[in-house]
Automatic annotation (TrEMBL):
Pfam families: BphC_D1, Glyoxalase
First-level EC class: oxidoreductase
Coiled-coil residues: none
Organism whose genome encodes this protein: Bradyrhizobium ivorense
Residue ranges annotated for the VOC domain, each copy included: 6-119, 137-249
Protein name: Iron-dependent extradiol dioxygenase
Oxidoreductase recorded as keyword: yes
InterPro entries, A to Z: Glyas_Bleomycin-R_OHBP_Dase, Glyas_Fos-R_dOase_dom, VOC_core
Any GO molecular function: 3,4-dihydroxy-9,10-secoandrosta-1,3,5(10)-triene-9,17-dione 4,5-dioxygenase activity
CDD domains linked to this entry: PpCmtC_C (cd07258), PpCmtC_N (cd08361)
Organism ancestry: Bacteria, Pseudomonadati, Pseudomonadota, Alphaproteobacteria, Hyphomicrobiales
Keywords tagged on the record: Dioxygenase, Oxidoreductase
Length: 282
């Protein structure tokens, strides 16, 4: 069993790094941790980065998870290899680019690019962004899936993800107490469906609704409230059509052993209990 501990970062190819920087700092509210020639490292918490935009193809998207140590990383590589996934061990240069001690890369059954990392770098200075969006941390990602049942099995049986709730056949899965760290979303191919940051309060969600609307950032869903995690949310579109979400009040699963996933219908009221309608397919 591969034990994912937490999300580490997302890496996104950017068609225009300047646009990405402007969005990340003036709209989303991240802090520039480091600006390299062809890459921008962005902070949302005490880590050196949780999002990296690099000059490249916007379809080139990778999600990374932290693993406890090198032994567990080696074991994860062997497990994936035995299952027929091509596993790439990060070179020292690639590790330096990701600010981690070691990593392996592979593709999930849909073809999503996943990295498992050991010892992601922290930053001694606290996260302090120039735009006050109220961000308290990087929390979850939505991943496209071409076969929700197959991919649920991969994340729960090969990795340690547990299903918290389902909407139709779509699983919201946790790797720790937080309601979900990975959400699957039906799609025609691999890719990141959305990137979530938690914010401090309902006020932050609504303040951002007005702030982003004023900047003409497309709002794609919300403000609303998910009946699944209970979180109040806002989804909006960033560069290269990537969707970002702010949310607050996501449930924690206290009874790890006893929790049974709830089944919600695949219908709008399962996505928002206040009646907001998504401007894009989930
Ligand atoms: O559309 C349903 C979304 C559910 C949630 C949630 O319960 O918080 C998400 O954030 C998500 O799937 O990303
Ligand atoms: Fe989400």
């Amino acid at each position: 069993m591969i034990e994912l501990r937490d999300l580490a970062y997302v890496r996104l190819g950017a068609s225009n790094l300047e646009d990405a920087q402007s969005f990340a700092t003036k709209s989303l509210g991240l802090q520039v941790g480091e600006q390299a020639k062809q890459a921008l490292y962005l902070r949302s918490d005490d880590r050196a980065h949780t999002l990296c935009y690099f000059e490249g193809d916007p379809q080139d998207q990778t999600v990374a998870f932290e693993i406890a140590d090198q032994d567990k990383l080696n074991a994860a590589g062997a497990t994936l290899d035995a299952l027929g996934h091509a596993v790439h061990a990060g070179t020292p240069d690639e590790c330096a680019l990701r600010k981690v001690k070691a990593f392996i890369g592979f593709k999930d059954p849909t073809g999503n690019q996943i990295e498992l990392v050991v010892r992601p770098e922290r930053n001694g200075k606290r996260y302090f962004a120039t735009r006050d969006a109220g961000i308290t941390g990087f929390s979850h990602v939505g991943l496209f899936t071409t076969d929700p049942l197959r991919d649920e099995l991969f994340w729960t049986q090969v990795c340690n993800a547990r299903v918290s709730d389902r909407i139709g056949d779509i699983a919201l899965m946790r790797v720790n107490a937080i309601h979900h760290t990975v959400a699957l979303a039906p799609g025609r191919g691999p890719g990141v469906h959305h990137i979530n940051h938690q914010v401090e309060s309902n006020d932050d969600v609504l303040r951002s609704y007005y702030h982003l609307s004023g900047q003409r950032v497309p709002i794609v869903f919300g403000p609303g409230r998910h009946p699944t995690s209970g979180a109040r949310f806002l989804y909006f579109q960033g560069p290269d059509a990537m969707v970002f979400e702010y949310s607050v009040g996501v449930d924690e699963i206290e009874d790890e052993e006893g929790h049974r996933p709830r089944q919600f219908g695949f219908e709008p009221s399962s996505l928002c209990m206040w009646g907001a309608r998504s401007g894009r397919p989930r």
